[in-house]
Amino acid sequence: MECIRGTLHVAIDTNFNFVKDFSGRYKSIFFKYVCGKQGDTDCIIANIDQNVEHTYYLVTELISIFSYVHNVAYIPVGSSSDNYRGDLQLRDPGITRKKMLNFDLQGVSLVGDWIIFNYPHIITNEQSLLVRLYRKARTAEYFDDSASFLFYYHIIDYPYNNQQNCAEEYIDNFVAQKQPSHVIDLINEVNKDRVFEKEKKDSPLGTYLKFFVRDSIAHIVRNPRNAIKAHNLNIDCFNQSKHLSNLNPLMREIARNKMMYKHEFNIQCESDILQITIA
């Protein structure tokens, strides 16, 4: 792997441990993934293709795919670039940070993961945005439930096509379909205590999530006309925080469902798009 324009270094904080370093190519960039040592973050080193901005865009798309496939958090926490033009395999990480996330899952080898998981083929700008939104939403679950909810809601509501109730209708259709028992449990848990409603209503779940939860979070202090029925977002409110922590796993299920079946994330990435080699 000969570097032409230098290398980009991106420090990655994640709660997934690949165990082994690996290298490969994603679309037009060659990269090396280096696992962090002694509490440091991982680092992706990539040959700069076209320019730094373009290369960073592809690197973050790749870690977003990892986040989606492994269903874990990935955070780019720092980046740098240089004019190194040697063998990429000999280049050490140019940037590291101290880890914030503890490992939740561990991959014994990436080769095994490559066989087990179907990495989606990101073709359109729409798909690229959605997989990045998923990474943001999944990561925010560890830090800010209200932000995580909004990112998941954006996925369910995307793309805007003159349908004002896009997310609302998709959520209600999702609930009406036959779902696994763990998803039914999530739905029942949310419906059991709709803390953003001022009065208990029998409105569909999509209506509640859009007009009560989403609007309360997005506006914080609601329009007085709309606040008659719904509570404002109260930061550090125990009941609201507990409700959001119960709600986000359901939002994640709905978001993944839409990505899979409406945005073709079920189409597998071919080897000419993503190639992996264990170091």
Structure description:
This protein has helices at residues 52-70, 110-116, 125-140, 145-157, 166-176, 181-192, 205-219, 238-261, and strands spanning 7-14, 16-17, 22-26, 29-34, 42-47, 74-82, 105-106, 274-278. With 279 residues, the chain is an alpha+beta fold. It has 2 domains: 7-117, no CATH class; 125-261, no CATH class. Strands 6-1-5-4-3-8 form a 6-stranded antiparallel sheet. The protein has a two-stranded parallel ribbon with strand order 2-7. Strand 4 (29-34) and strand 5 form a beta hairpin. The two termini are 13 Å apart. 35% of the residues are buried. Mean pLDDT is 89; it is low at 111-116.
Count of distinct structural domains:
2
| Backbone CA Rg | 21 Å
Biggest sheet record: 6 strands, antiparallel
Q: What is the topology, as strand order, of the major beta sheet?
A: 6-1-5-4-3-8
| Contiguous uncertain segments of 5+ residues | 111-116
Q: Percent helix among the residues?
A: 40-55%
- Our estimate of the beta-strand percent is 15-25%
SS-derived structural category: alpha+beta
If you average the pLDDT, what whole number results? Answer: 89
Would you summarize the structure shown here?
The chain has 279 residues and is α+β, with helices and mostly antiparallel strands. The protein contains eight helices and eight strands, in the order E-E-E-E-E-H-E-E-H-H-H-H-H-H-H-E. The protein has two domains: 7-117, no CATH class; 125-261, no CATH class.
